[in-house]
Specification:
By secondary structure, the protein is of the alpha/beta class. Helices cover 48% and strands 14% of the residues. GO terms for molecular function: oxidoreductase activity. Keywords: Oxidoreductase.
């Protein structure tokens, strides 16, 4: 029947039109890079115009014929997302692929968080995904190739992560949105892929915000996110994500640790919850009243991150952060041109 998805529909992404929200740095940037490498016409969207300019330079450097556009867009504002989709469709002759990736990360114990932190995470991560999906769908339904929508969740949206509660709550909502959209669109020309990455070496520790004992929170998060034992190379992750979208997979979970956590929650949910409780006890406690710092960006915390840390923590942070620190400059987290390491 005309308009219904069938396996014979075009699988290759070559020549298709794509939009990536949160595409100026980190995971969004390397997802956009993979789409460019697969010869898509790509529009990347983010709030920071300077970041977008650097990202566009990176995506087009040395790539003759690469079609990359940038649009400033705050995904918490539905009108801006509507304008983004319309501009991209008009410039690129329609929309075939949309990746909802925009997000924020707040790292802090519960006692250092307030309702505003949950609202901020929900507004950007969940409502940003809702706005992106609702505004993209009318265009994706018109795609001759059959539209593809990907929502980037997280292992934190499959298993609640301690000291990441606003983030986890918002990512759980994204997971529900992806499953619901897949059901609602079953039999249509649009496929929906739920993406649940584990820790990746994207330099996200510099873009995240830290509260409570912010130096110690930065220490454990940057070490874990950069550890070769726990995290995954960002470009490798992006390649697998885009392949999953290309093949119209329903769901992809990345990193062995994330897969183990997902399996554990399904098979032994009570035990998994107890284990996350034990993890929480190993993390920095909330400071005494009056000693807590406001939420502070990782770029600001980094300069003083080792002050006051026990020697063991300091060595662990230095070792674990090494790969992530290098990724931060490559993936536009620090400010210099992406693709160039600092120093």
């Amino acid at each position: 029947m005309l308009g219904l998805f069938t396996p014979s529909r075009k699988q290759s992404l070559t020549g298709l039109s794509a939009v990536v929200t949160g595409g100026s740095r980190g995971l969004g940037l390397v997802i956009a890079e993979q789409l460019v490498l697969r010869r898509c016409a790509v529009t990347i969207a983010a709030r920071d115009g300077e970041e977008l300019d650097r990202a566009r330079e990176y995506l087009t450097r040395g790539r003759t014929g690469a079609a990359v556009r940038t649009v400033r867009c705050d995904v918490t504002e539905r009108s801006q997302v509507s304008a983004l989709m319309g501009e991209a469709a008009q410039a690129q002759g329609g929309l075939d692929v949309v990746v909802a990736n925009a997000g924020i990360i707040q790292v802090a114990p519960l006692d250092a968080l307030g309702p505003e932190d949950f609202a901020s995470a929900s507004g950007t991560i969940f409502m940003g995904s809702v706005h992106t999906a609702l505004e993209a769908l009318p265009w994706l339904r018109r795609s001759p190739a059959g539209g593809r929508l990907a929502l980037v969740g997280s292992v934190g949206g499959l298993v609640a992560a301690p000291h990441l509660l606003p983030y986890s709550c918002a990512k759980f909502a994204v997971a529900g949105l992806a499953e619901g959209l897949h059901a609602e669109l079953a039999g249509s020309s649009v496929s929906v892929t739920a993406v649940h990455p584990g820790l990746m070496r994207t330099g996200s520790h510099l873009a995240a915000e830290f509260g409570g004992q912010h130096r110690r929170e930065f220490g454990w998060f940057s070490a874990a996110a950069g550890s070769p034992l726990l995290s995954m190379d960002a470009r490798r992750a992006a390649a697998r994500i885009v392949t999953a979208v290309e093949r119209r997979r329903t769901r992809i979970v990345l990193t062995p640790a994330a897969k183990a956590a997902d399996l554990g929650r399904g098979v032994a949910p009570v035990l998994t919850t107890k284990l996350t409780g034990l993890m929480s006890r190993a993390l920095p406690s909330a400071p005494f009243e009056g000693d807590a710092s406001p939420m502070t960006p990782g770029r600001e915390v980094e300069e003083e991150a080792d002050q006051g840390l026990p020697p063991v923590w300091r060595r662990l942070r230095t070792w674990g952060s090494a790969l992530n620190d290098r990724a931060s400059a490559r993936l536009n987290q620090r400010g210099p041109r992406p693709g160039h390491t600092a120093g």
